[in-house]
Design brief:
Largest sheet: 6 strands, parallel
Radius of gyration: 22 Å
CATH architecture of the largest domain: 3-Layer(aba) Sandwich
Distance between the termini: 40 Å
Number of strands: 14
Helix content: 25-40%
Number of domains: 2
Shape: elongated
CATH superfamily of the largest domain: HUPs
CATH topology of the largest domain: Rossmann fold
CATH class of the largest domain: Alpha Beta
Number of helices: 10
Strand order of the largest sheet: 1-4-3-2-5-6
Order of helices and strands: EEHEHHEHHEHEEEHHEHEEEEEH
Length: 317
């Protein structure tokens, strides 16, 4: 998949495509329906399938720390889109200059002149341009005069409820990982490079792999049973997502203790799939209480994986 970073990097060879536009946060089942339509149109017109997304996401630009929690970092989003078969992604830098562009200018200068869009698919609630003045009707009207077909994809439904990034955030905040998985189409995961931490876990007898949560707001917190992919191997473990209140931490971290794991993996990329929430994060009165609780968390996580394995075997008989 080709990544075009910024409108200024769109070249003549990128002119002529089939496009969809959005945040694609989480690349959930609703997004996948949009991508399926995009790929069908691209095949019919023999043009590259192209996704336009924004970094930072618009609400992060306007609302800063009050923005909704992000589900996926750019790297993870790109990996998921590539897996779905998207050929190109245009990652637009969402800044003051771009935000001040009128809706009509965006269509004429970016979509038509630079990208030469022949078919455009947008969500039914898509708004764009300065003051969010652009909508489907504007796209349709400008498209008709320029030879750009425009269609809206109805919101994908599952269990009579709209699949949306907002609904997934609410499920994660409530600790309902199964509901989140049902809407995402996969386990919710956090990924990143392992960094050096305070080494407190090692001192307490529970060494952890730490990943900085490079987002303004995290969609969930607490202690979870997890599976972590390190290289080509997968390990069970227990993880804390939060700011370590017992140690008066202020920076949000993902801390993962992997079972039967002794390797040093600083600097390596790790993907951590959250399987079940065990409890909320809270502050303990002393290290003895913390150690006792961690031991209990490990017991419960191992019980979860034992029961999951038993259920999988039973289901296959």
């Amino acid at each position: 998949m080709e990544l075009i970073r910024g409108i200024h990097n769109i070249r003549s060879q990128h002119h002529g495509c089939v496009l969809t536009i959005g945040n694609f946060d989480g690349v959930h089942l609703g997004h996948r329906e949009v991508i399926k339509g995009l790929l069908r149109d691209a095949s019919a017109l023999n043009l590259p399938s192209t996704v336009m997304l924004f970094e930072p996401q618009p609400q992060e630009f306007f609302l800063k720390e009050r923005a909704p929690a992000r589900l996926t970092r750019l790297r993870d989003k790109l990996a998921l889109l590539a897996k779905l078969g998207v050929e190109r992604v245009v990652c637009v830098s969402f800044n003051g200059r771009f935000a001040s562009q009128s809706a009509a200018e965006f269509v004429s200068e970016v979509l038509l002149k630079k990208l030469g869009v022949k078919a455009l698919t947008v969500g039914d609630d898509f708004r764009f341009g300065k003051g969010r003045s652009g909508d489907f009707s504007l796209l349709k009207a400008m498209g008709e005069t320029a030879g750009m077909a425009v269609k809206s994809t109805e919101s994908f439904k599952k269990a009579n409820a709209r699949v949306s990034s907002t609904a997934i955030r609410e499920a994660l905040r409530a600790g309902d990982l199964e509901l989140a998985k049902a809407m995402l189409g996969h386990d919710y995961a956090i990924s990143g490079r392992v960094i050096h931490g305070w080494k407190k876990g090692r001192e307490l007898g529970f060494p952890t792999a730490n990943v900085a949560l490079k987002r303004q707001v995290c969609p969930l917190s607490g202690v979870f049973a997890v599976q972590a992919k390190v290289g080509t191997h997968t390990y069970n473990g227990v993880a804390n997502v939060g700011n370590k209140p017992t140690f008066n931490g202020t920076r949000a971290l993902l801390e993962v203790h992997l079972f039967d794991f002794q390797q040093s993996i600083y600097g390596q990329f790790i993907e951590v799939q959250l399987k079940a929430k065990l409890r909320d994060e809270h502050k303990f009165n002393g290290l003895d209480a913390l150690v006792a609780q961690i031991n209990q968390d490990i017991i419960e996580a191992k019980q979860f994986f034992t029961l999951s394995t038993t259920a999988d075997v039973s289901g296959g008989l």
